[in-house]
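Reviewer comment 2.1 asked that we show a complete input and output for one of the modelled complexes. We chose the NDP case, as it is the one discussed in the main text.
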Amino acid sequence: MSRILDGTAVSKAIRAEVASGVASLAARGIVPGLAVVLVGDDPASAVYVASKGTAAREAGITERTLRFPADLPESALLTAVEELNRDDTVDAILVQLPLPKQIDSARILRAIDPRKDADGFHPVNAGLLLQGKPAPVPCTPAGILELLEREGVPLRGTRAVVVGRSDIVGKPMALLLLRRDATVTIAHSKTRDLPGLCREADLLVAAIGRPGFVTGDFVKEGAVLVDVGINRVTSRADVERFFPGDAKRRAAFDRNGSTLVGDCDPATAFPRASRYTPVPGGVGPLTIALLLRNTLELCRGRRLVAPSE
Ligand code: NDP
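Response of the prediction step:
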């Protein structure tokens, strides 16, 4: 058994399943539609949106990206979202975050019809997740759960620690693990003795946003480690620290001037884990796969269920 939890392979499998589900709908004359809304010119957001669009089209989903300037007033974005809510060809709506400062993200996410909520960020869907009811679930934690289950990582009765309590990753991750009968602790920036708490975990999920923060002394020998972080490091000293002796990484850094590192220190944390998600190639690819699956499920829910049901 490989120590690496291979997010790329699992995401390929999920994407193939989605494509087959889309093909069955197409045979009945139904084509799922995804609308992506991008405000401003943040380069990272532009890259994410482009890859979501390509992946959707590859799966047979109709994808439309609405692009707006960074100074878009909040009212104009609300109007755009309402139009998408009314558009019968649109099954799933994704508003790319972060939004510019003048726009209240929470208000925009609340304006999305919960039945078209591709990211599962609407409070109604967050509430359904809390209650363990069917609802679109945020893509990153949903992808992690798929990865753990398909790779046969035991969850029932497991002591799990999730570091990070964001609405997008940490909290829904903790709820999904709880739903699978793990015993879950959520840690954050005010947690006392974080390394000691993390060392109790059989399953440790790091969703913090700090490169290499979780070092070997946070990890119980043999624990399973899920590294959600995506951090770009640009200093050679960091590359030497995180990837000592890794000639391939150093060559890539020399070519690109940067490299990606997660929230776990690959030099000291990964060697203690029985299994772990690498960065890149771990959690990242799953997020898009689950976006496609959410789109398919939302389409089925909206178009295959009779209005009276
Ligand atoms: P947020 O910034 O919203 O949340 C970060 C969390 O980490 C907060 O709860 C914060 O605690 C906690 N934290 C920060 N510093 C510390 C510390 N020193 N000790 C303990 N806890 C700390 O980030 P996100 O949840 O959105 O993302 C987390 C990471 O995951 C990022 O690297 C992001 O890029 C990555 N990500 C990756 C995705 C993927 O597809 N692979 C998708 C989404 C995110 P507090 O609440 O107390 O401030």
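Strands lie at 33-39, 62-68, 92-95, 159-163, 183-187, 203-206, 224-227, 231-233, 259-261, 275-276. We note this here for comparison with the apo prediction described in Section 3.2.
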